[in-house]
Amino acid sequence: MIGITLNVVFVIIEVFYGWHAGSLALLADAGHNLSDVAGLLLAWGAVAAGRREPDARHTYGWQRASILAAFTNAVLLLVAMGSLMWEAAHRMHSPVPVEGMTVIVVAAIGVVINGVTATLFMAGREHDINIRGAFVHMAADALVSLGVVFAGMLYLWQGWAWVDPVTSLAIALVIIMSTWGLFRQSLHLLFDGVPDGIDLAAVDALLRSQPGVTEVHDLHVWAMSTTECALTAHLVMPAGHPGDAALEAIAGALQRDFSITHPTLQIELESHDHGCHATIT
């Protein structure tokens, strides 16, 4: 809520002064800030949706909303930067004068606002790509604003009108490169890819090392949300069911070693073909 409020106010300020000063960099930064507001709303909405209880229609609840929000955040940022690059390329052919001091002051305010907002999401970005999406959005915006400050200073110093679009173009390229990882990771999770940090072969080896297990098949690991992972596997145990205590020990090992919090294990006396042809390589 704090981040959204700060950025909405700042968007209004940037649009007014960007138009008044004739600065493409300020107007582009305002558009980027507007996409950040949308990104923060998405992240916030995903957290709220993820807290909804499972029901008969959504047996896992709405936890995947956080993955979708992270993906949408990345797409929004890539589209915003693509639009900025397109406009900057056009402006380079016909540079226009800008009010350097206005640009510097407004952009400096943006550095502070976006820096403070990014700090709010710093702690959770390592373990939750939804929070990481919000952090990347705000940190990128702080970088854009800082670049606009330097562009304004160069314009006041040398009077180079081309500095404004060139700075916008350079910043957009940097942000696209930093956003690509978030886009790739969130898209991977949307297609039920094994989450980064989980070695499927190591999971398979852990299950095979359990007493009484002679074979493991139909092993699947996927992300239920940006913070929770699920697993299903068939364990061939000729001696029969090992008891609840053994299953609890396996579940504890999966959570401890791989942060898998929702394992489902099927015990079989002999191997059966259930139509799953997935193999671990």
Describe this structure in words.
With 281 residues, the chain is mainly alpha-helical. Helix content is 64%, strand content 9%. The protein is built from 8 helices and 3 strands, in the order H-H-H-H-H-H-H-E-E-H-E. It has helices at residues 2-21, 24-50, 65-93, 100-120, 129-158, 163-190, 200-208, 244-258; strands at 215-223, 229-236, 260-268. Strands 1-2-3 form a 3-stranded mixed β-sheet, with helices on one face. Strand 2 (229-236), helix 8 (244-258) and strand 3 form a beta-alpha-beta unit. Helix 4 (100-120) runs antiparallel to helix 5 and helix 5 (129-158) packs antiparallel against helix 6 (163-190). The radius of gyration is 25 Å and the shape is elongated. The model has no long low-confidence stretch (mean pLDDT 81).
Mean pLDDT over the full residue set = 81
Question: How many strands?
Answer: 3
- Helix count equals 8
Biggest beta-sheet profile: 3 strands, mixed
Structure classification: mainly alpha
Distance between the termini: 45 Å
Relative strand content: 5-15%
**Helix percentage range:** 55-70%
Short description:
With 281 residues, the chain is mostly helical. Helices cover 64% and strands 9% of the residues. It has a three-stranded mixed sheet with strand order 1-2-3, with helices on one face.
Write out key terms for the chains shown:
281 residues; mainly alpha; three-stranded mixed sheet
Layout: helices, strands, pairs:
Layout: H1 2-21, H2 24-50, H3 65-93, H4 100-120, H5 129-158, H6 163-190, H7 200-208, E1 215-223, E2 229-236, H8 244-258, E3 260-268
Parallel strand pairs: 2-3
Antiparallel strand pairs: 1-2
